[in-house]
Amino acid sequence: MNKKLLCAALLGGLGLAQAANAQDFDDRWYLTGSAGYNFQDNDRRTEDTPFVTLGLGKFISPNWSIDGELNYQNPKFDDGVEGANRNLNWSQYGISFDARYHFVRDGRNWNPYVLMGLGYQRAEEEYDAFPSPNSPAERKDGNLAAKVGVGLQTTFSSRVAMRAELAYRADFDDNSYAATAGPDWGGYPHNQEESWFGDVLASLGVVIPLGAAAAAPPPPAPVAPSCADLDDDGDGVNNCDDRCPDSKPGEVVGPDGCPVPVTIDLKGVNFDFDKATLRPDAVSILSEVVQILQRYPELRVEVAGHTDLCGSDAYNQSLSERRATTVYDYLTSNGIAASRLVGPRGYGESRPLEATPQTLPGCKSEINRRTELNVQN
Q1: Integer angstrom CA distances of residue 1 from 8, 168, 197, 198, 355
Q2: Does the keyword section mention Repeat (predicted)?
Q3: 313 - beta bridge partners?
Q4: CATH 3.30.505.50 for the 242-375 domain, yes or no
């Protein structure tokens, strides 16, 4: 089969490497082993041959790994080599130091990589030296080699990862006997000035990490929340500042977390002098109050009535009660449940908003003739 077609097929087959679990940066040393096929440079006058490797390496960052790798192959002379040389030995072995850059992506079980490496390749080549009594003679020589390539590697599972690789190795061997033999050696055409050879290496291998994987760091100890971060009764005041930590849900509290009285002053719901009937302008205001109470069904309020300072205390007490009853009846007749209302209660002239003389006409303060809704929760 044509070598170029074989190489293309092997590149397409790299994606068949078996996937493993996702890997973070794992800096354990690992062993590597692979088997593959060495497509020999034609000018070597040797046949393509299987090869094996054994190596040791590790990741030095999430993307970079370094490997030291031994290799061995034992090709035969090809069919163009005739005579006694055809069955003589030709073998090759060496060491390579390779750096790989892995294109790692989170959540992917395999990652492509590129590699580059330098090494040393040694050749042992027998050849016919007839009529010398020392025939067959042998050449043993070592040379610099360089390698580039691409591959795929799965992420580490508990014990193993897979690796598929295609590489090109330049072997700077300028003393090959078979490659420089003259035409009398079977008349095989070749380059007699060859100073290096390029081999294509296709392989599948395993990567076996040594030792147990590093344990994940323990999660940070939980930080106990401070009282400033807590609000046990849910009243909006943190525990540090809350002097009443047992506030009831919906209760209105002050900055210290303690309940505070809240009064809804029905401004505009005032009464004519010595009257307990609603004025037209007060009806529209109470309609809005009904809507607010319907919007917040958890609110409970006290309906309280007040008077100005004119008249006797007893009379004003009775008048304030009648005014509170007027507002109370309006609310209940417009859908506000009596269970949400406390009262009606009259406070007479005991709680004036504006102090005025108790003599006519100064006692007639309209703002004192009022009703209020005092929030109870």
Answers
A1: 12, 19, 20, 18, 115
A2: no
A3: none
A4: no
* Coil/strand/helix, residue 244: coil
Own/partner contacts of 78-82, CB < 8 Å, gap of 24 or more, are 78/45, 78/46, 78/47, 80/45, 80/186, 80/188, 81/45, 81/178, 81/185, 81/186, 81/188, 82/185, 82/186, 82/188
Torsion, Cα of 296, 297, 302, 308 (10° steps): 40
What are 138's strand-pairing partners?
126
φ/ψ of residue 289, rounded to 5: -60, -40
Q: Which residue has the tokens 């294509």?
A: 200
Q: What is the CATH code of the structural domain delimited by 3-209? A: 2.40.160.20
* pLDDT at site 70: 97
Q: pLDDT digit string (tens) for 229-272? A: 888 888 788 888 888 888 777 666 777 777 766 666 666 576 66
Length of the chain: 377
CA distance 300 to 87: 110
What is the rounded CA–CA span in Å between residue 366 and residue 228?
47
Looking at the chain, the number of H-run helices and the number of E-run strands are: 4, 12
Residue type at 51 in one-letter notation = F
Q: Where are the domains of the chain?
A: 3-209, 242-375
Cα 102 to Cα 115: distance, rounded to the nearest angstrom:
9
- Alpha carbons within 13 A on the beta-carbon side of 351: 13
